[in-house]
Write a structure and sequence with these properties.
41% of the residues lie in helices and 19% in strands. It is α/β, with parallel strands linked by helices.
Length: 382
C-alpha cells in the first residue's frame, strides 16, 4: 500500500516546530516500520520556488514551492487558484493508493481519489491570530470560513483528534469518522520523571496565540512566594519577532533575566529532558484544539496548568492531571501554579494519573496501528 501524507513536516527530523509537523514526524516514524506500506510525504506550498526532496530512511519527503505567476497571493488564495492543481498533479504522479491529508481541508476536498483527512484545527479561527494586520486577518478568516466550511461538509473520511472538533463537522451521520489522538513518539514513554523543584516550563512558538506574556507576568508574582523558581520557555522566537521582543522587554524591564530563559526551538531529546525536569507545564494559549505539548508532558508525567479553551478540557482533567484556568486570568494562573510548587504529594498524584491517561491514547505505535486500520477501511470504499 502506497500512502502519501500531505502535511507540514520538519526539515530537521530531530527538531519539532509546530504541532501538526510534530504529529506527522511521530506518525511517520512508526508507519515506516510497516513492511507492507510505502510512505511518501508531500509538504504543500513552501516558500521555495521549486520542488525539493529529502529522504529519511526509505521515506521520500517532497516540498512543493510556490510556483507560477500567482505566487504573490496569500497561501490559501494561491492554493485555490493555482496551488491545488499543482498539488493534485504532483500527487497523481506519485501513484498513491491513498492520500492522508493532515489538516488543510480545502486541499483535501479538491483531491478526488482515495483519501483520509485528519482535522487538526479550525483554520478560519486560527487565522485571527497570525502575524498580519487586523484587516488582513479578518479578510483571511472570512475567506477560510467559506472554503474550509464547505470542504468539511464535502469530506467523507475524517480523523478527529479531539471531541471538541465534532461540533465543526456537519452531516456527521453521512461520514466515516475515526477518533484517533495525536501520537507521541514512543521514546517519550521511556523517560524518567525527575522534576527539579520550582522549575516551570512553557513550550510553543513565542507568539500572540501562545500568549506567553501572561505566563511571564504571572511568574513575576510567583517569584514573591518562590524566589528560587525558574521559567523556561522552549520554542522558536522567530515566528513573531515583534511579540518576542515585547516578551523579552518585559523580562528585562522587570529584572527577570536570571529567572526567565528563552531556550529557542529544541531537539526532541532536549525537549524530553526539559519535560522530565519540570515541576509543571504551563500553557496560556488563546486558542488550542489538542496541543501536542500537553500530550508529550502527560506521557512523562508532568502536571499541566492550562487555559480552559478549545479542546484542552478533553485532555487535562481539572484537579486530577492538572488545572484549568480562565483565559488571561493571571491570578488564577498564579494560584494553581503555586499549589503545584508547594504540594509535592498532589503533584505526584497528578503525575501518576497523567501517565495512566496517556499510556494508551498517545503512544505513537498504537496511533499508527489505528491509522493503518483506517487506511484499509477507506480503501474498501473505492
Amino acid at each position: 500500500m502506497h500512502v502519501v501524507m500531505v502535511t507540514p513536516f520538519p526539515e530537521n527530523f530531530n527538531h519539532i516546530d509546530g504541532g501538526v509537523a510534530g504529529v506527522a514526524r511521530y506518525l511517520t516514524g512508526e508507519l515506516k516500520k510497516y513492511a507492507d506500506i510505502k510512505l511518501s510525504i508531500v509538504v504543500p506550498t513552501t516558500s521555495k520556488q521549486y520542488v525539493t526532496m529529502q529522504e529519511w530512511d526509505d521515506v521520500k519527503i517532497y516540498r512543493i514551492g510556490v510556483i507560477g505567476k500567482w505566487g504573490f497571493l496569500m497561501k490559501s488564495l494561491y492554493d485555490m487558484i493555482s496551488g491545488k492543481r499543482i498539488l493534485n498533479d504532483f500527487l497523481q504522479s506519485l501513484k498513491p493508493d491513498i492520500v492522508h491529508f493532515q489538516g488543510v481541508s480545502y486541499l483535501a476536498a479538491g483531491y478526488h481519489d482515495a483519501k483520509l483527512t485528519t482535522i487538526h484545527g479550525i483554520m478560519e479561527k486560527d487565522a485571527l491570530w497570525d502575524n498580519r494586520n487586523i484587516i488582513l486577518r479578518l479578510s483571511k478568516a472570512l475567506w477560510l470560513t467559506i472554503i474550509e466550511g464547505q470542504s468539511r461538509k464535502k469530506l467523507r473520511n475524517l480523523i478527529l483528534i479531539n471531541d471538541y472538533l465534532a461540533k465543526y463537522v456537519p452531516d456527521k451521520t453521512q461520514k466515516n469518522i475515526w477518533k484517533i489522538c495525536n501520537p507521541v513518539d514512543d521514546s517519550y514513554f521511556e523517560q524518567e520523571y525527575n522534576p527539579l523543584r520550582y522549575r516551570i516550563v512553557c513550550c510553543g512558538r513565542v507568539s500572540k496565540l501562545k500568549n506567553f506574556l501572561v505566563a511571564i507576568k504571572a511568574f513575576k508574582v510567583i517569584l514573591n512566594k518562590f524566589p528560587e523558581a525558574e521559567l523556561r520557555i522552549a520554542g522558536s522566537t522567530k515566528y513573531q519577532p515583534t511579540y518576542f521582543k515585547k516578551c523579552r522587554n518585559y523580562v528585562i524591564k522587570n529584572g527577570l533575566q536570571d529567572r526567565v530563559v528563552f531556550l529557542g526551538n529544541l531537539s526532541i531529546s532536549k525537549l524530553q529532558r526539559e519535560f522530565s525536569e519540570a515541576d509543571c507545564l504551563v500553557l496560556t494559549s488563546k486558542r488550542e484544539i489538542s496541543p501536542l505539548v500537553i500530550s508529550e508532558a502527560m506521557v512523562i508525567g508532568v502536571p499541566v496548568v492550562a487555559t480552559d479553551i478549545g479542546g484542552v478540557k478533553y485532555m487535562v482533567k481539572d484537579g486530577q492531571t492538572g488545572f484549568l484556568v480562565p483565559l488571561n486570568d493571571e491570578k488564577a494562573l498564579v494560584d494553581k501554579i503555586s499549589i503545584l510548587l508547594s504540594n509535592t504529594s498532589l503533584k505526584n498524584q497528578m503525575s501518576i494519573r497523567s501517565k495512566a491517561e496517556a499510556k494508551e491514547s498517545y503512544k505513537a505505535s498504537h496511533v499508527a496501528a489505528l491509522t493503518v486500520a483506517a487506511y484499509k477501511k477507506v480503501l474498501t470504499l473505492y
